[in-house]
Design goal:
Keywords: DNA-binding. InterPro entries: Homeodomain-like_sf (IPR009057), HTH_TetR (IPR001647). This protein is mostly helical. It has a single domain, classed as Tetracycline Repressor, domain 2 (Orthogonal Bundle). The chain is built from ten helices and no strands.
Length: about 220
């Protein structure tokens, strides 16, 4: 049997995520957690002041491992924009792992946020952080202005939707590389504007400088 000395705060957080995913936020109770971990209530209060402290630790922990840590892992000069987007989507879809409740954990957190303002704030902060990162990468891939933001929003909305649909056996596996290729392809209007700008730049570079007019000799 585990003891308060052998358990860590993360052990309690993982157990709480499992209860959240399987039975909802009301199942995050000290007695349920103690039964799950095979310890007494004294062990819980050894690590957390109260249940509110555990719940706050849960959502902050989720934001770190499912957002901040994922983004930090993307900072690599070896990753092309295409590879970065593919890896980002795959990583977000894979975390948290089974020990945190499985792939439905984020869905459960979003349902929890609908009825808890503090959780909702953390989820919104995570959404903002992810979307800002995707928009920045879109700009790095050559898209500009509203289009970069729009494409980033579409990628993120698709990502959140995929998390919601996790576990649906009737759905085919998404072609993530193909989706990313489509998102990185400029729209016809943008492509035309880019082409026009390139033509103008090239023409300006090729145009010879005008010869100075000869000075008239005053008689």
């Amino acid at each position: 049997m585990a003891t308060k000395q052998t358990l860590t705060p993360e052990d309690w957080i993982k157990a709480a995520f499992k209860l959240l995913t399987s039975a909802g936020p009301k199942a995050i109770r000290v007695d349920y957690l103690c039964k799950e971990l095979g310890v007494t209530k004294g062990s819980f209060y050894w690590h957390f002041e109260d249940l509110a402290a555990l719940r706050a630790a849960m959502v902050e922990h989720w934001r770190r491992i499912a957002t901040s840590d994922v983004i930090a892992s993307m900072v690599s000069p070896e990753l092309s924009p295409r590879d970065l987007f593919i890896r980002f989507i795959e990583d977000i879809l894979q975390v948290p792992t089974r020990e945190y409740g499985g792939p439905m954990t984020e869905v459960a957190i979003r349902h929890w946020a609908a009825g808890d303002e503090a959780v909702q704030t953390v989820v919104r902060d995570a959404d903002t952080e992810r979307l800002a990162f995707l928009t920045l990468q879109m700009r790095g891939a050559g898209l500009t202005g509203p289009e970069a933001r729009s494409r980033a929003t579409l990628i993120y909305a698709t990502l959140v939707g995929l998390k919601q649909l996790t576990g649906e056996p009737a759905l085919p596996r998404m072609d993530i590389p193909g989706f990313v290729d489509a998102m990185l392809r400029p729209s016809p209007a943008s492509a035309a504007a880019i082409q026009a700008a390139l033509v103008t730049t090239a023409a300006t570079a090729r145009a010879p400088e005008p010869e100075p007019e000869p000075e008239l000799e005053v008689q």
